[in-house]
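A further point concerns the way the authors explain their paired sequence and structure data. The central task, working out the structure tokens from the amino acid sequence alone, is never made concrete. I therefore recommend that a typical entry be quoted early in the introduction. An entry of this sort, consisting of the sequence and the corresponding backbone structure tokens, reads as follows:
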Amino acid sequence: MGFKMVVVALFIAVAIRIASSNSEGDALNEWKTKLMDPHEVLQSWDPTLFNPCTWYHVTCNSDNSVIRVDLGNAGLSGPLIPQLSHLVNMQYFMVFGNEISGTIPGELGNWKMLVSLGLQQNQLSGPIPASLGQLKSVRFMTLNSNKLSGTIPIEVLELVLWGNLQTLNVSDNFFQGRVHAGDPTGYAVTTITQDPKIGSA
């Protein structure tokens, strides 16, 4: 009986891993279908494969879960999509230097493991979602050189003081207001770097 229980437990664990891998592959493939890829850098993103861990520009952990996407300066255009939030173990999302447009999906606030978010030098517009303030593990958030507007959510600014965020670059956008009353620069030219002497939660 004990042996059968072990076999069942192993089967369930494998099934969960397969389902997770397929879900992440589906999310990335859905994003691929929304992108223009003139240089065919996403050619290896084959949705018929078992999981996306063999795709170029994708890195997985030992559980075959995506932890990194590296697509900087890849000539891509198109939107980010909410389904990317299904990549629940994402740590590094680097898509700088493209023509990514539209808004930043609020669902990306579900990336609880995220360390670095590189969205600079694109064509992103609209506000920064307040949900990005949920990224307690993020250390680097580079959003500069886009067309973002509105005000920077206090939830995001608080990550500099109370989270692990060391660098928040929001320069060269269309933000309104200032970081605080004594700051002589506006959001549009602000790079906020946490003093390493200040403890982070």
The helical segments are 2-34, 154-162. The two ends are 47 Å apart (CA to CA). The CA atoms of residues 9 and 15 lie 10 Å apart. The first strand starts at residue 58 and ends at 60.
